[in-house]
Every structure is written in C-alpha cells, then in structure tokens.
Amino acid sequence: MTVSETAQAETALAGDGVVRLDAHLHLWELGEGRYSWLSPDLGPLYASFTAAEARDTLAAAGVAGAILVQADDTAADTEAMLENAASHDFIQGVVGWIPLEDPAAAAALLEKWAAHPKFRGVRTLIHDDPRANVLGLAPVRESLALLAAAGIPFDMPDAFPRHLGQVADLAAELPGLTVVVDHLGKPPRAGSADAMDAWERQLRAVAACPNAVAKVSGLHCSGTAFAPDALDRVWTVALEAFGPARLMFGGDWPVSLLGARYSRTVEVAAALIDSLSPEEAAAIWAGTAQRVYQQ
C-alpha cells in the first residue's frame, strides 16, 4: 500500500462513524530497568511508546479508545499504566499484573489496584513460563480464584502451544472467572497443518466454556501474509466457536508494528468484521470489551 493509499484508508476509517475500542494496547519506556524482554534485535519495538503517540495513532485509524495491557511482570509497569490512564481519557481501562504464585501478595496488590477507577483486569506473561502446568499450580489457582471472587477478568497471552490446552480446564473449574484468550491463543499460521488442527481443537474447547472470551488481535505471523484472505480459517474458527458476543478487536500496538502499520491492522480487522450484521460488528468493535472490562 502506498503512502497516499494509507492516508486515504486512515481518513475513511476515522470518518465512518463506527465506535471502535481497541482491547489490547501496550505502552512502555526504555531505560527504566523494566521490560527485560525488550532488546535491539526486536527492531521497531526497541523504542519508547507513549500515551500521546498511541492516542494520535489510534485516532488516525478511527479508534476512539483502548484498554491498556501489561507488558512486564512488575508492579511498576502497572503503576505506570494507571498513571497514564489517569491522564488520558482515551485509555478506558488497565489490565495490570499480580504475582500469581504468591496469593497473599496478589491479594494485597488487588486491594491496592482496586482504588484506581480504571483498573479492569489482570494478566501475567505466562507464555514466557516454560512449565506447561503453571495454570494448574495450587497457588496460581488460589490467586485466580481471588480474581473470580472480585469479578476481575484474567487475560491469557500467547497460549498455544504450551498453555492453551489448560485454559479450558481453568475456565471450567472457575466458572466465575472471565478468561480472556489474547490473540486467539496465537494460532501457528506459518506452521504445519497438524499444529493448526491442534490449535483449533484447543481453542474450540476453551470456547465451549461460557465464561471464556477472546481477542481478535496479535495475528501477525512471520513467514505468512497478514491479509483478510490469509486469516480466513482463523477468523472462521473464532467466529464459529465464540460468536460475536464473545469476541473483541485488539490492535496489539506497538507489537503489531512487526507486521504492519496500525492503520493496516485496523483495515484487516474491518474487512473481516464489517461483513457481519451491524449489531454483531458493534459487539466485536466495542461491545464485548465494554462488557468484559466493565466500561
């Protein structure tokens, strides 16, 4: 897409009157001793991304607001997100962090975070944990039960291949916990047919639990195209399994810059979502996220 075509697409999205809420946005600043996973080999991600930059980027693509999601397993990252949320109206909620394997510390942080009006959920970088059984550990289940009791949703990142198979068990054991599958579990679009089949089986098992929802987000994949037709199977499985009322759009900015400009991410989502009825499209663009994150 040329610069002119991109500008035209951004203008069209920004002026189409659709209410869009991005359910998956990140911010970070280098040089603060956090984000240990960030390194120069990540190219465009090795930079600071501010709330002001995010606001302008989203607005140019016709996205009015966002849910800010943790990018580091530290209380400092959550504090920084809450500070940004207090200063920027477009940040409508924050998904922060608690130490799942320390229920007492998790309870203390939940009490602290609850004082912030935009605290809306919890996530940890479980996909970085090499243990396939981490979601089944007794302390982790105890901490997640705290979330269920408080009505706080739990985001699960990049769950396939190591952890997606456990998510259905988790959702079934804690029916009061809203489990949010980020990035549709991270389907292996550049992998083998067997891998895709395994991802589909596991995602459908999660979707069979009524307390599970999923984000249509983070679907860029090195080695394969990022375009509506290339996402056909992933989209079809997600829509059949969850239905529009349990799906939400997420841009995954700035991680998405590894695959495309933000405006392109929104365009691809629009090509998929806008084929639905207005009511169904409205659910995925904003309604599901507003309900899950209590907007």
Structural class: alpha/beta
Q: Tell me the strand order in the biggest sheet.
A: 1-2-3-4-5-6-7-8
State the major sheet.
8 strands, parallel
Low-confidence stretches: 1-9
Number of E-type strands: 8
In sequence order, what are the helices and strands, one letter per element? HEHEHEHEHEHEHEHEHH
Number of helices: 10
How far the N terminus sits from the C terminus, by CA atoms, comes to: 35 Å
The CATH topology comes to TIM Barrel
Provide the CATH top-level class.
Alpha Beta
C-alpha geometry: globular
**Level of helix content?**
40-55%
Q: Work out the radius of gyration.
A: 18 Å
CATH architecture: Alpha-Beta Barrel
Q: Going by CATH, what is the homologous superfamily?
A: Metal-dependent hydrolases
Q: Whole-number average pLDDT?
A: 93
How many structural domains?
Answer: 1
User: Beta-strand percentage?
Assistant: 5-15%
Explain this structure to me?
- The chain has one domain: Alpha-Beta Barrel (TIM Barrel).
- 41% of the residues lie in helices and 12% in strands.
- It has 10 helices and 8 strands.
- Strands 1-2-3-4-5-6-7-8 form an 8-stranded parallel sheet.
- The longest helix is centred in the last third of the chain and has 15 residues, at 193-207.
Question: What are its keywords?
Answer:
295 residues, alpha/beta, TIM Barrel, 8-stranded parallel β-sheet, globular, disordered N terminus
